[in-house]
């Protein structure tokens, strides 16, 4: 019930990675891939006719009237263009998954070579800019190779803007945040967390006041890795204000790897209308892209601090990786266009409902369990059998395990998981003759179902 299920969430019909990989360049342009497309009407510029034109793409909303070409038509045109260019590229190419697509340099600047997908990349970036409430001419971003790269980029921006700033991050922050502090030789402060994994704002306040002579670079976790806890951005901003930090003395990076695609459909927590500096998400998590990727968005006014002119690619570059996978923007664009905001909103609601369903079922069976608000990560007592953990792909820390209830997970799967867990627990704890461990320290006394806290809960009720 872990990483292996993430691929189930990506359902790009009729295009799928497996079918594309098996096709030849010419067959991709044929009607058997996209039967509703009349290939006789497709016009492709002759090879060698100069750099191809920008496709001027945008993410489409399903169900709304669209006067432009269909998704299939756009992809056929794009594939035809690449096919025509095969003879001018020193590689053995096959459609999409076998094309050497390299999005090198700034996404908003064209390359000297045509084998890129920056058209799709910019369309994806525009979609996220709208989601997080920042105007097109006010933002900059790129499709990354994953959430870690987004964190490295966001924190580097903060360091460049505030060179003597101190990085503040909760102990439940993703490990890449502390990796960034080491890589950039930054002073850092680790902030305590409450039992649910959320930042301890009193500890943040105390440490901000201790270092008031230096700017603050704050990592805000929107969905912690193990417990799914969400740091309260508004409380953090209020704390900065109360501690005397003006907006030119702090930089906020939002690590929203999992929840950045969820919270906008529940509340407007993530918004560039607030004084934040950057947001990153992972495309292979909630959206379910079949390969690691992410999206990083920041303010356009900040990016000059990182931009370097690179003559041999005829572009400036402000990214971490430079060369980037040109396939991932296409997968992201296609998935966003087929799901749309309504589809994603439905996914969010279904996942939240299913997470609560799983939590309630486990609780009813007398199993220690915790679920944070607005989270799809259900934390439970660690199963005692390694084979059970391996079979269900559970991630474990200390006496805890967690289940991430993604869009591809059904209630039938959750029922099967609970049924097997209940049966196995009877063996582990010899039908009640042995006791399950107390996990109150890990998930809170109110969520612990050990014999002591179960009795305490009954009496307090």
Automatic annotation (TrEMBL):
Highest lineage ranks of the organism?
A: Eukaryota, Viridiplantae, Streptophyta, Embryophyta, Tracheophyta
Protein name per the record? Histidine decarboxylase-like
PROSITE patterns in UniProt: DDC_GAD_HDC_YDC
List, alphabetically, the Pfam families matched.
Answer: Pyridoxal_deC
Task: Report the domain of life of the source organism.
Answer: Eukaryota
Give the family from UniProt: Belongs to the group II decarboxylase family.
Question: Matching Gene3D superfamilies, A to Z?
Answer: Aspartate Aminotransferase, domain 1, Type I PLP-dependent aspartate aminotransferase-like (Major domain)
Q: Which gene encodes it?
A: LOC107027080
Required cofactor(s): pyridoxal 5'-phosphate
Give UniProt keywords alphabetically.
Decarboxylase, Lyase, Pyridoxal phosphate
């Amino acid at each position: 019930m872990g990483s292996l299920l993430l691929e189930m969430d990506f359902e790009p019909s009729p295009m799928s990675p497996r079918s594309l990989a098996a096709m030849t360049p010419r067959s991709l342009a044929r009607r058997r891939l996209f039967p509703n497309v009349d290939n006789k009407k497709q016009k492709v510029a002759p090879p060698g006719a100069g750099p191809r034109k920008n496709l001027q793409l945008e993410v489409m909303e399903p169900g709304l009237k669209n006067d432009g070409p269909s998704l299939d038509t756009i992809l056929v045109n794009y594939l035809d263009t690449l096919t025509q260019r095969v003879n001018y590229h020193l590689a053995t190419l096959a459609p999409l998954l076998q094309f050497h697509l390299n999005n090198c340099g700034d996404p908003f600047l064209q390359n000297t070579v045509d084998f890129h997908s920056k058209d799709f990349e910019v369309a994806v970036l525009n979609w996220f800019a709208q989601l997080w409430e920042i105007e097109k001419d006010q933002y900059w971003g790129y499709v990354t190779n994953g959430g870690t790269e987004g964190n490295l980029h966001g924190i580097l921006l903060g360091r460049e803007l505030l060179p003597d700033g101190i990085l503040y991050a909760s102990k439940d922050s993703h490990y890449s945040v502390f990796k960034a502090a080491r890589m950039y030789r930054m002073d850092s402060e680790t902030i305590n967390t409450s039992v649910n994994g959320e930042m301890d704002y009193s500890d943040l306040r105390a440490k901000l006041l201790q270092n008031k002579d230096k700017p603050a670079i704050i990592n805000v976790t929107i969905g912690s890795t193990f417990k799914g806890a969400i740091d309260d951005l508004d409380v953090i901003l209020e704390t900065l204000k109360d501690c005397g930090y003006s907006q030119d003395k702090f930089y906020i990076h939002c690590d929203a790897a999992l929840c950045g695609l969820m919270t906008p459909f529940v509340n407007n927590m993530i918004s560039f209308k607030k004084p934040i500096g950057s947001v990153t998400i992972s495309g292979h998590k909630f959206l379910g892209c079949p390969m690691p990727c992410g999206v990083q968005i920041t303010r356009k006014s900040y990016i000059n601090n990182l931009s370097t002119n690179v003559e041999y690619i005829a572009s400036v570059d402000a990214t971490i990786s430079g060369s980037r996978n040109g396939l991932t923007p296409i997968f992201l664009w296609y998935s966003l266009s087929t799901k749309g905001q309504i589809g994603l909103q439905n996914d969010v609601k279904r996942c939240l409902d299913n997470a609560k369903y799983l939590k309630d079922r486990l609780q009813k069976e007398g199993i220690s369990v915790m679920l944070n608000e607005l989270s799809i990560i259900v934390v439970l007592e660690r199963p005692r059998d390694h084979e059970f953990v391996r079979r269900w792909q559970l991630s474990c820390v200390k006496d805890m395990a967690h289940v991430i209830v993604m869009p591809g997970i059904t209630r039938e799967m959750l029922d099967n998981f609970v049924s097997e867990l209940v049966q196995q627990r009877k063996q582990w704890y010899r039908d009640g003759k042995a006791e399950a461990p107390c996990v109150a320290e890990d998930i809170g006394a109110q969520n612990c179902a050990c014999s002591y806290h179960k009795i305490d809960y009954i009496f307090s009720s």
